[in-house]
Design goal:
The complex is a heterodimer of chains A (about 525) and B (about 140).
Chain A: H1 2-28, H2 36-50, H3 60-83, H4 98-109, H5 119-122, H6 125-155, H7 164-190, E1 199-203, E2 209-213, H8 217-226, H9 247-272, H10 274-296, H11 310-323, H12 338-350, H13 359-379, E3 384-385, E4 388-389, H14 392-418, H15 421-426, H16 432-446, H17 461-489, H18 506-530
Antiparallel strand pairs in A: 1-2, 3-4
Helix pairs in contact in A: 1-9, 2-7, 3-4, 3-6, 3-17, 4-17, 6-7, 6-8, 6-17, 7-8, 8-9, 9-10, 9-11, 10-11, 10-12, 10-18, 11-12, 12-18, 13-14, 14-16, 14-17, 16-17
Chain B: H1 2-20, H2 22-25, E1 29-32, E2 35-39, E3 65-66, H3 68-82, H4 86-103, E4 113-114, H5 115-125
Antiparallel strand pairs in B: 1-2, 3-4
Chain lengths: ~525, ~140
């Protein structure tokens, strides 16, 4: 039975990603898509409204700036909505505090969706809908767009990296929105509610009455999973029966989370050689397989898990969610076995097995560059990628991308303890379990993951401000550096010669997987030993 | 973009949902004898020993289901409170498990019992036993 569920999730998401991967490849090189004329007309309308020239090509700096400016405007809008939701329509609730509003805006614009608030209690329907659902499109579209630009860096020569506004519009209108719409209808069919009311008051079997929070859940749920977002309508996230009512919805949500991250290596294969695409996909699946094996090696629950998912359904959902940096949760993390938690950490540390929409693929290519450099050192050859020499600056930038992550996790974790802010939330007595919760909080923030142990208990100024800045740095610093790498590759000479180190095939997949594991292990093992290993 | 993704999209899903799937859209409310008695997906509390009890240590806190083992372990208590034969209670639990298996296309979920639907079945089969428990107190 469990094996059938696993097969359906894997075959379903891989099958769909073959279709979407081809489509994404067409989007990257601006080839004709199905319904091109109609879509083109709709998109041109948007370009006219925002006043952009669709043929303008951007350098990496322009592209990055356009993305940051768009994100800042969207985040500013969300912050205003959250601060002043008491004056806005649809079941107004008191405005959030400044630190909580800043945290939430940073969390949603960076595709993290760490939640220090309880959605059904603290947010109005207007905030959930116009604020959060809107942002749940903006954040993944920004990530996917930068991945488009990044991949273009390797296939275009001195032609710019594309146009951010064009990519952003096309990704939302012709990729995310249609899939979300149909997925929302399917979720509705499976029992996820969709209404503009914020509560329903209905009878009970014994003749009493009960008030149940409700809202436009289906439309939020679909883009939440599809867009690597993960922010729940309810504080209980996907464990709430209204977000994830049955075993079937659980399987469908797993597929939604995996489909776009897995589509990227397929698109990459279409553009840069089938072997290379399949090799990257294989490396991603090996990493994901390790996470799953860890999670399934030990029984979780039943405390903290939902009966309709059981240990297997909860583990499969959570490992998929953390692997794709979605961060949705269908069980309480405290209910999961220590091995499952180690799997979560692995996913958040690597961020590329398969990682979030767009950024997971970029991170994997960074690992490829680092691997080529290290292997090149071993065999004494100048490393090349896509027939282009990898120069010292690329390696420095790639190493920097890799090193930002541990810095953003470990420094604030230490600060939380030295300033007593960890102790004030988790108690004076520090145990491996409480240390794990602090380490997890910042790992989740820095990886733009969003799953967490602390939840509303971390709604204090220290935790709100610190995690907000970590999320922002964890998002924009690596993306900026990755675009810089792409920007320098696009200017480089390429000669069609045999690669000194092949970037496809079994050997490469093996070396890449081992390299990813060793780099991650060397960096993080001491901290895992203090935390989850000792739980 | 705000209007497209934040307003038009959720409103369109709402419009389709309320028209085509009104039951699911409004929280899958369950009706008994013409009265709404709860949501299929949200657990409720029962203050009588004649009903099966839900769990409260789940992730959501409103888990509507219990494991078959947990339901079976409650059977002796329900039997002594109601006098309903043990084998009948066991059959009703099995029927509910089978019904949920069907909901999940047989393979997509572990076996579980929906507490509300099981209790409703008890009330339907043994109305005389439950007259006092469901005597409709008008909502205040």
């Amino acid at each position: 039975m469990d094996i059938v569920i696993l097969l359906v999730v894997l075959v379903g998401s891989l099958g769909l990603s073959v279709i979407f991967g081809r489509y994404i490849a067409r989007m990257i090189v601006y080839e004709k898509r199905p319904l091109e004329k109609t879509l083109g007309r709709v998109e041109n309308g948007f370009y006219k409204i925002i006043g952009i020239d669709r043929y303008e090509q951007m350098t990496w700096k322009q592209y990055f700036l356009a993305m940051v400016v768009t994100n800042v405007i969207a985040a500013g809008f969300l912050m205003v909505v959250l601060l002043y939701q008491n004056n806005l329509p649809l079941s107004p609730k008191p405005g959030l505090s400044l630190d909580l509003a800043f945290n939430t805006a940073a969390s949603f614009v960076t595709n993290t969706n760490l939640q220090h608030y309880a959605g059904e209690q603290q947010l109005s329907i207007f905030s959930q809908m116009v604020g959060l659902i809107f942002m749940m499109f903006v954040a993944p579209a920004s990530g996917i767009a930068t991945a488009f630009a990044f991949i273009r860096g390797f296939i275009r020569k001195e032609f710019g990296l594309g146009n951010f506004y064009v990519d952003f519009t096309r990704i939302i209108i012709t990729l995310l929105l249609p899939i979300s719409f149909f997925s929302a209808l399917l979720l509705l069919f499976l029992g996820v509610p969709q209404t503009l009311d914020s509560t329903i008051t209905i009878g009970t079997l014994q003749g009493g009455s009960q008030t149940i929070p409700i809202g436009p859940v289906a439309s939020l749920e679909s883009i939440k999973e599809l867009g690597s977002n993960g922010g729940g309508f309810f504080a209980a996230n996907s464990s709430h029966p209204f977000e994830n009512p049955t075993g079937i919805s659980n399987v469908f949500e797993c597929i939604l989370m995996l489909v776009i991250p897995l589509s990227f290596p397929i698109a990459y294969g279409h553009l840069l050689g089938k072997g290379r695409g399949i090799s990257i996909l294989a490396a991603m699946l090996i990493g994901f397989g390790v996470m799953l094996a860890l999670g399934l090696s030990e029984q979780s629950g039943p405390t903290g898990l939902e009966t309709r998912f059981g240990s297997f359904g909860s583990t499969l959902f959570l490992e998929s969610s953390v692997a794709t940096n979605t961060g949705a949760a269908n069980a309480a993390l405290t209910g999961m076995s220590p091995n499952a938690v180690i799997g979560f950490f692995l996913g958040m540390f690597v961020q590329a097995i398969p990682g979030a929409d767009g950024t997971g693929m970029m991170m994997m290519i960074i690992f490829v560059v680092l691997t080529l450099f290290l292997v090149g050192l071993m065999v004494g050859k100048t490393p090349e990628f896509m027939s282009m020499k990898i120069n010292p600056r690329d390696v420095k930038l790639a190493a920097f991308v890799f090193l930002i992550h541990p810095a953003l996790i470990l420094i604030p974790s230490v600060m939380a303890y030295t300033t007593e802010n960890a102790q004030s939330v988790l108690g004076e007595h520090t145990t491996p379990a409480t240390f794990t919760q602090v380490l997890y909080e910042y790992s989740s923030a820095s990886a733009n993951n969003g799953s967490d142990y602390l939840g509303t208990s971390a709604n204090t100024p220290f935790w709100n401000w610190s995690t907000a800045w970590i999320m922002l740095l964890g998002r924009y610093a690596p993306i900026g550096l990755m675009l810089a790498v792409a920007g320098s590759f696009t200017l480089r000479d390429r000669k069609e010669v045999v690669e000194p180190i092949k970037t496809s095939g079994f050997l490469f997949v093996g070396v890449l997987s081992v390299m990813v594991f060793i780099l991650t292990a060397l960096t993080f093992f001491p901290f895992l030993a203090m935390g989850p290993f000792s739980m | 973009m705000i209007i497209t993704t934040g307003v038009a999209y959720p409103l369109l899903v709402t419009a389709v949902g309320q028209t085509v799937l009104p039951s699911q859209s409004n929280g899958s409310q369950v009706i008994l004898n013409g009265k709404v008695v709860g949501s299929e997906f949200i657990s409720q509390s029962y203050n009588s020993a004649k009903f099966f009890q839900p769990r409260n240590d789940s992730a959501s806190g409103v888990d509507p289901d219990i494991t078959p083992d947990s339901a079976i372990s409650q059977i002796p208590a329900i039997n002594s409170a109601t006098g309903i034969p043990v084998n009948v209670l066991k059959t009703l639990v099995d029927l509910d498990v089978a019904r949920n298996k069907e909901t999940n296309a047989l393979v997509f979920a572990p076996d579980y019992v929906n507490v509300l639907s099981l209790n409703i079945e008890l009330v339907k089969q043994y109305p005389e036993v439950y007259t006092n428990e469901i005597s409709v107190k008008e909502a205040p």
